[in-house]
Amino acid sequence: MSDGASVMHLDMDAFFASVEQRVNPALRGLPIAVTGAAKRTVVTTSSYEARALGVRTGMNRFEAKKQCPSLIFVSGNNAKYMDVSTRIMEIIKGFSPLVEVYSIDEAFIDISGLRGLFGSPLDIGRALKKRIKEETGLICSVGIAPNKLMAKLASAMDKPDGLSILRPCDIKAHLQDMPVGTLWGIGPNITSRLGLMGIKTCGELGRANAGILRKNFGIIGERLGAMGRGEYKDPVRPAGFEDRVKSIGHSMTLPEDVWEREKIKMYLLKLSEMVCARARRHGLQGRTVCLTLRYPDFFTFTRQRRLSRATNDTHTLYRAAKRTLSTMRLRAPLRLIGVSLTGIVEGTRQLPLFTEDKQREKLLAAMDEINGRFGHSALTWSALLEPERTPGVISPAWRPSGVRKIDVG
Amino acid sequence: MKFVINKSDFLKPLARVQGIVEKRTTMPILSNLLMNVKDGKVEISATDLEVSIKDVTATESISEEGSVTINARKLYEIIKAFTDDTIKISSNKDSKVTIKGGKSNFNVMGLPEKDFPVFPDMEGSTLHKVRVDTLKEMIDRTAFAISTDETRYNINGFLLEKNGNKIKLVATDGHRLAVIEKEDDLGLGDSARALLPRKGLMEIRKLLDEDGGTEFSLGITDKNLMVSTPHTTMIVRLLDGEFPDYKRVIPEGNDKMAGADKEDLLLSLRRVSILSENRIKGVKFKFSDSKLVLSASSQEIGDATVEMEVNYTENNNENLEIAFNAIYVIDLLDSMKEERVTIALKDNLSPCIMRPEGSLDYTYVIMPMRL
Q: Which pTM value belongs to this model?
């Protein structure tokens, strides 16, 4: 802690693309782009060779091809990425037990107690990068700083294959003219609201009047001010020490845009089952159903419905989602559908009175057990049998264990 | 249409229909009430298509018979605001309604009668007399158990069964069930079965309270239920749906009996459930020889126990520990006028029966929580 460098952020470089290049040597050194489902056209990750030619995440197939005619498209393979990710996280845990797996290709590590074992923070960073390179052949960027916010910033400073340290004495100068949107957690919405207040840089944010920030942003206002000064209190949270989950949800970009209500309902059922199976596995229930829909032009909106009591029953969630859908007039086909449960509470253990409800609970428990043993969707609702299985894209919220562990096909 | 009416006479029926007219509706006419003036009386009707009400009030004089519909809320507010006792109301052929009282004059745009939904007819039903107090008590002892989960429409209503001179009302939310059966010596005649929406029955409850009479007429067809008092007729559209087989879940052979003072149990439960986890107020009941220990705990806050006296008898001198959602028990105790409550138990995973001590016509079943 003496030099304040206590948190390390590790970010795999072009993770999905690098994994693909690793397993298929023919792709090495070439511009490649990983897409979601085969029929989908949006680039989720591209190799550094492709990035150099102007390919960006979120571009569709045609835009990307226009930028880089020699681009090779690879359809994503989530099981492969999860496997590599788990191996990398194991390597990291060999250095420190205090590891917060932030997403499939990112982790925060508390290194404050490691000096005696592995030397200076930079030594630790070098050793970690070397081990990962040796065992997986992949490169990553590492940032070291006094807290998670600054570590995340540092890891992005020298990508790819970077190793950067932000010391407390350098932070002020570093943030002075940096746009606020560069900070982790400050998105376009907050950026534009700050912009209206005349706050464009982190320096300005850090000096802004706390009262005015609080008035405009509520309780997060003060935190924003602190972030502008590079201060961040949230500690590294290893698995098991996470905040209580606030929501459980799934969304999927459909293999192709969908108009028909019947088909949309089928996806709602599939998503409801995924959400509820996960909630049941962790003994949680939710009170509010939230439906997220996205049109092909990426306009995204949500609708909520509060239930009279918390549930993790697939059909209760499905019925509520269906009802919400029935109140809407869609102006275009849907590109993405998401279902989530919020207002999460621990399961109630209240027993049902009627035989039908008891049988339902037993049925769901049996399904969960079978799926637990033979893989998810081994046993599913017959209404879901029709569509082809879609690999989809791993959500940024993915975790290797706990409530955030999402099974992807 | 043109008539004169006494303010306080008119205000009562206007107040009564306010709960029924829809405040937010896609059909503007449903925010209106229909005034029909003839034979010395004004008849007011309102509906939300599920509950319809018709109320007859005597006028002071009528100079022209006729009918018009007008916004129910505005008419009520206008009449309420007048200080004069005598109010003159008239309408022209464009459905413009003029309301005069003293030196105040209101013109309100109405809509013609022909657009107003037809009042449901009750052809094919025979009316039977029922005591007001009977139905009021039945509603009060069951209403709290009804489901508010709108996705479970088949239990969003009361089940009413009528058989000979017996009448039965059942409500459940899937975790608890309240059943009450009353004999009415006025004689109900034929048998019938109906699923009544909550709003409808609660409106009937209000009507019975306000009307002040001792008996009313009840009629049931396969679509509607009708309640009528001397001035008012209310018709409720029945729900479609299969009410669950409630008889199967009323346990038999619950032989562990406990008797407790209602007030004591109510206060103890309220006290101990302060420390129950989140909104579901799980409370443990530990019955042992003449003693009941209630306990609740919350991981984040702490725990609490309350001890109270009960008469508890069981076969093998074994103690019983069972958990309930305290709210379910409190709801029952709150609705009771009796001083003592009887609790009949079997084991900690089976439904339990609670009822006022000595009661034969009322059964309240609660499913426990897992310990």
A: 0.70
